[in-house]
Write a structure and sequence with these properties.
The complex is a heterodimer of chains A (207) and B (194).
Chain A lengths: L1 E2 L3 E5 L3 H10 L2 H6 L10 H12 L5 E7 L4 E11 L4 E8 L8 H17 L4 E7 L3 H10 L2 E12 L2 E11 L6 H8 L19 H4 L1
Parallel strand pairs in A: 5-6
Antiparallel strand pairs in A: 1-2, 2-3, 3-4, 4-5, 6-8, 7-8
Chain B lengths: L1 E2 L3 E5 L2 H4 L2 H5 L2 H6 L9 H14 L6 E7 L4 E11 L4 E8 L9 H16 L4 E7 L3 H10 L2 E12 L2 E11 L6 H8 L9
Parallel strand pairs in B: 5-6
Antiparallel strand pairs in B: 1-2, 2-3, 3-4, 4-5, 6-8, 7-8
Chain lengths: 207, 194
């Protein structure tokens, strides 16, 4: 676990794996992974997704956890290009109450910081659908530069929509603490939600 | 097979694969793979081919060989990442034989693949990216009517320095058709090189 100001970054397991079926079928997931086809994700899809990302040395999916212990969503990096020291970052609010909040922004800041200060990357790429104002605001507040617009790139609800391309370089990142001071992050005081029921364990398996 | 004026796009068969060890270890790879100078064995090339075949289960691309009108293999052109649900595809190409750089061979192949993407695969948009160092491709993109849509700062490391990655896109309604583009560019068939 790595602690930020309003959130912690935690391993994507236990409760997160339980929530993922709901999250992977949500609008927020599809906005984060806009290149995917809209289709139902079953338990098998989800298990396979987690397995594939876990066995990929250049990819990671991390949980974003509120200070009250609630899972907020996730942040991930994939498609790392070692020679270029860059990767593609995406993040989402699984719990829609956290959409656009400083908690989710803090998760993004922590992921940026982790990739520059610990993983020694030079550059992070990310994208946002043109209508995803909350995500665009988060990226701009975090210090990402809008580097262009991929015109009519994605089919979405009967129309073709633009995708905004963003990037941030290690040299443009002031560091986590200065960035947090600059932004003055505010907790949104969202109340805890009831814990999900864990699936029944088969007694034979338990033995 | 797709027939052009200077080149044809054909199945990427044994005649192409046999040339890969020489091609992959040449300067052409530097230009076609964002500045990577490869030192690669035949065995590594074969393993990479197998990995790509496995990955192709997830990415339904299309892969052509480029040959001259005399039948000489000179490179490859492909749709590397096709998203049918978005009617969107990313292109990738390399002319490996340096004697065929700058003579319209790559442009002829590009016009064929654009027509193929729009008229046969019914795509709506195609796109590709290159490094800002690759002036030849930047000129080609502008010439053929692609729009520069994004410029990723310092996204490519080549020749000991950072360069930008430049992304180009072309929408179907912006494409006048291959014949019109051939006329505009003044592309003509020419006698085969000795």
């Amino acid at each position: 676990m790595i602690s930020g100001t309003l959130i912690d970054l935690v391993p994507f397991e236990d409760e997160y794996a339980l929530y993922l079926q709901e999250w992977m079928n949500s609008e927020a997931w599809l906005r984060a992974r806009w290149w995917e086809r809209r289709e139902p994700h079953t338990e098998q899809h989800i298990k396979k997704f987690i397995e594939e990302i876990e066995k990929n040395d250049h990819a990671k999916l991390v949980g974003i956890q509120a200070q009250n212990g609630d899972p907020i969503g996730g942040v991930a990096w994939e498609h790392q290009w070692v020679r270029m020291r860059k990767t593609n970052l995406w993040f989402f609010a699984g719990d829609p109450r956290y959409e656009g909040t400083d908690e989710l922004l803090d998760g993004l800041l922590m992921a940026v910081h982790y990739n520059f200060a610990t993983r020694n990357l030079h550059r992070l790429d990310t994208y946002a659908l043109a209508f995803d104002e909350a995500k665009i605001a988060h990226l701009q507040r975090a210090g990402f530069t809008h580097e262009g617009t991929l015109r009519q790139h994605v089919r979405w609800a009967g129309d073709y929509v633009d995708v905004l391309a963003f990037g941030i370089l290690e040299g443009d990142w002031p560091g986590y603490e200065p960035k947090v001071r600059e932004l003055g992050l505010q907790a949104s005081d969202i109340p805890p939600k009831p814990k999900p029921e864990k699936p029944q364990t088969d007694e034979a398996d338990a033995d | 097979m797709l027939e052009g004026l200077l080149v044809d796009l054909v199945p990427y068969d044994k005649r192409f694969r046999e040339r890969e060890p020489q091609w992959e270890n040449s300067e052409a790879t530097f230009w076609g793979s964002m500045g990577e100078w490869r030192i690669i064995t035949k065995a590594e090339i074969e393993r990479r081919r197998q990995r790509r075949q496995e990955a192709s289960r997830h990415f339904s691309g299309v892969h052509f060989g480029i040959q001259t009108k005399a039948g000489k293999p000179i490179g490859t052109f492909g749709i590397n990442w096709l998203l049918a649900h978005h009617r969107l595809a990313m292109l990738g190409a390399i002319i490996y034989e340096a004697d065929y750089w700058g003579g319209g061979y790559g442009t002829d192949a590009l016009l064929l693949i654009v027509d193929y993407a729009f008229d046969w695969l019914d795509l709506r948009k195609i796109w590709l990216s290159t490094m800002s160092l690759n002036a030849r491709v930047l000129r080609q993109m502008e010439k053929v009517g692609f729009t520069m849509e994004a410029r990723h700062k310092e996204a490519v490391f080549a020749r000991g320095a950072w360069h930008d990655e430049v992304v180009y896109g072309l929408l179907r309604e912006e494409w006048p058709g291959r014949e019109a583009m051939v006329q505009k560019l003044g592309l003509r068939a020419k006698p085969p090189k000795a």
